[in-house]
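Regression check, adenosine-5'-triphosphate case 264:
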Amino acid sequence: MATKEPILSARDVEIQFSLRGRKLTAIRKCSLDLYEGETLAIVGESGSGKSVFTKSFIGMLDANGSIIGGSIMYDGVDISKYKTEKEWMTIRGKKIAMVMQDPMTSLNPLKVVGKQIQESIELHQGLKGEEAKKEAIEMLRKVGIPNPERRYNQYPHEFSGGMRQRVVIAIAVACRPQILICDEPTTALDVTIQAQILDLVHSLQKELHMTVIYITHDLGVVANVADRVAVMYAGQIVEYGLVNEIFYDAWHPYTWALLSALPQ
Ligand SMILES: Nc1ncnc2c1ncn2[C@@H]1O[C@H](COP(=O)(O)OP(=O)(O)OP(=O)(O)O)[C@@H](O)[C@H]1O
Ligand SMILES: [Mg+2]
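Current build output:
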């Protein structure tokens, strides 16, 4: 495991937002490596930069934000230098997909869910019409939605929170990305459902050979499924390493504080 080449390598990434004429640095010299088939957990308190940092891997920063330093090497290219949507579309969804924190905002309330999955398949996989529809139904089945043929024609509001989360995951993995980023909803789902979603992501990861970044507040998740963990604090990565090393040998005071907040 230790000698593998990373499939994505972020180095000294700096991200700024401009806000009413002022510059606000949200990410300060963050570095991490992703390895094939592994799970990286990113933990850290609210506002520490977990979403902003990972969104920069797919060019999804808010319009007032930009990467102002460092590099993100993926497939031999520094994608942090990408400027246009056209460039990002070669990566986003296709190679690196993200399940956003709020599943409701990533679904179109006016469109049946099956169509939304189908559109993603048509856009990225080049399948059309009936063929794409069949694949969309297959994806619904894969993420554990019963009666997928019937469910295909239902709207997001007809699904429970957990089921909606499954639909969003179906859209994300429909294009067989190499890397899946899951920004875990912290309050929206209850604990049992979150555990089921985690199981789902884990089994899809095995089946589709994906590398997963799991953003979470739950250190149980870190201990149970992650190979590596990055701890973020105030826009920086204050710990990064193999889970076993971090859990049993954490030296940073913030890591201790975070670990001691573990239930049990
Ligand atoms: N569009 C924006 N303009 C200005 N500041 C922003 C913008 N988006 C995010 N930020 C700031 O960047 C910092 C990091 O935010 P981020 O959303 O990455 O936190 P997070 O670790 O994902 O938190 P949470 O656990 O609550 O999701 C925060 O201080 C936030 O206010
Ligand atoms: Mg976030």
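Comparison notes: Residues 17, 19, 24, 26, 44, 46-52, 62, 64-65, 101 surround adenosine-5'-triphosphate (ligand 1) (CB under 6 Å). Residues 191-208 form the longest helix (18 residues). No diff flagged against the previous build.
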